[in-house]
Protein 1
Amino acid sequence: MTERVVVDLDHLTRRFGSFTAVDQISLEVYEGEIFGFLGANGAGKTTAIRMLCGLLLPTSGGGHVAGFDVLTQSEQIKKSIGYMSQKFSLYVDLSARQNLEFYGAAYNLDRRTLADQIAALTQRLSLGEFIDRPAGSLPVGWRQRLALAAALLHKPRILFLDEPTGGVDPVFRRTFWGLLYQLAEEGVTIFVTTHYMDEAEYCNRISIMHAGRIIEMGRPFDLVRDHGAANLEDMFINLIRAQETTGATH
Ligand SMILES: Nc1ncnc2c1ncn2[C@@H]1O[C@H](COP(=O)(O)OP(=O)(O)OP(=O)(O)O)[C@@H](O)[C@H]1O
Ligand SMILES: [Mg+2]
């Protein structure tokens, strides 16, 4: 992890009609950091990530990703980042390899680079056995690895992962996080959402969102200590419940 800021947000806001899904969030993420973006269902995480990935325009506020402006440089942002969406976005009838070829073409990789990257990622993510099977037939853990491979094809320096381990078994989750750690050690910045508190503990820092706002941010163990909680899960639940009893809901 370096001191270089690669994501900065300044009062980033997104409304849908009169509803504010993301409400003035500000944060900085450092190069090589694993940043956990936590929050209850509907807190606004996916909406925020879509703005960071250049897929949705903010209503107000702004920010930078990989040095590019989220308001005006979405095309440059898309080329610089890898994104794993919360919804499964691979083509179920195409094989794992064909999916990677499709995404590689979308990133304009030349044939040689694409072939090398597919071979490297197949090995790194242990996808060999599954590479010629239809993506839709893969067990969930393997599908998610394939989606990670697709997000890594163009060697992005920042990865946005929206619940990459949803529905994945504990053994797969552990190996998946092993891969994320390796990537972070290579200097890749990882911005990840999860509802699993064991995964939140693996993050360098986390933020916690509620009703569109960031209500807490820091290193996992500092937060547990500062709140006098038994563990991260208790801290998270107490914090969200306290927000709900003070009426700070949508
Ligand atoms: N296109 C849209 N139009 C209207 N409302 C939307 C739209 N997209 C999201 N929302 C609303 O914004 C709020 C935040 O949704 P979002 O998907 O960002 O939450 P989330 O934190 O990712 O939740 P989850 O943990 O369930 O994935 C929700 O109330 C959702 O219904
Ligand atoms: Mg979401």
Protein 2
Amino acid sequence: MRTSVSPRYNYAARAQHFRPSPVRGVFDISMKPGMISLAGGNPDLTVLPLEQLGDASARLIRDRGTEVLQYGTGAGVDELREALTDVMSLSGIRSDADDLLVTSGSQMGIELITTMLCEPDDVVLAESPTFVGAIGTFLGLEADVVHVDSDDEGLIPAALQESIRAVHATGKKIGFLYTIPSFSNPTGIRLSLERRRQIVEICRKEGVQIVEDDPYGIISFDGSVVPAMRSLDDSVVYLGTMSKIYSPGLRVGWMLAPRELRDRLQLASEATTICASVLSQHLALEFLTEFDWRASVETATGRYRARAAALVEGLEEHMPSDVRWTNPTGGFFTWLTLNRDINTESLLQRGIDDGIVFIPGTAFYADGQGTDTIRLAYSLASEQDLREGARRLAGVLS
Ligand SMILES: Cc1ncc(COP(=O)(O)O)c(C=O)c1O
């Protein structure tokens, strides 16, 4: 079927399903001098040993340029895949490097798995709220996103059971459950091990594939890590990324999937990118093998912890009493609920006028929910700016 969203091009029907990202939409505004941006989930790259990384990059190109500037395999650089199994072991995952596919970031992994498992109108179950970039992909590929209820502790197993029952009653097919159990984007909530077990059990019983997206699991303020769902069930598809622990600009992520599915995912990946950037993969490998990358993540996590505390302090000091927020123990985000009959989208321009950028909560739902919610990212702003940002935001709300 063709669509006529523009008289100029003979667009495919799916063209109209891709929507602009609200995070990208405020990117330029966030850069304005004097503006405090709590919009983007950007990692703090100032913790990186840039000089040494620069030397390592120069050495890599000088000594192995004909290899690292060449095309690579569709699966990814073998040594990197091996090193990534060590990264995942921190989340309790025992894996074989052959089950791993290197991608150009987790966003690509989300696209690949949706392409592989969802026909148009198939259902993707997703916690409410969920990652805006994933929603964009699901809708773009014409999946039907059904949100599963969450509470202060994350996805509710009983609600998942009920949603599966309701979808089955409509006769629709469930492509998969998409979930971010550790320090979720956008809420910052971490799901307990008990709930993870229950969810894995429900999905096993109902034959629902789980896709676990885990960019933030090891960015834990007290150093504790709750085992990934993939560690509870080998059939879970696990998405990892170097974006939050090293560099989003490199565009290196990975997928861990049962072999048969992984092989198909690789074919789809090759059809998109041929291979992930070989140079980027080697830079990621250098970071994981030649540097004390865990110390770097620890330093960054210390900063995120201090920033989250500064933001929460600012909120406690300035916010009206009916506003609630999550108290993150890891990751990059906190989630505000205003408990008012108000659409935060209409407050964004006022916020920008007053020097504060945030993401209105409706971005994190596929169905218009979340009108009285806001996501705040504390990962990059200074503690001072976070306190001032809370004050400016409180001014906008009152
Ligand atoms: C939950 C989640 N998944 C995926 C991504 C995309 O990550 P990548 O840079 O690896 O594509 C993000 C980035 O913000 C994210 O928060």
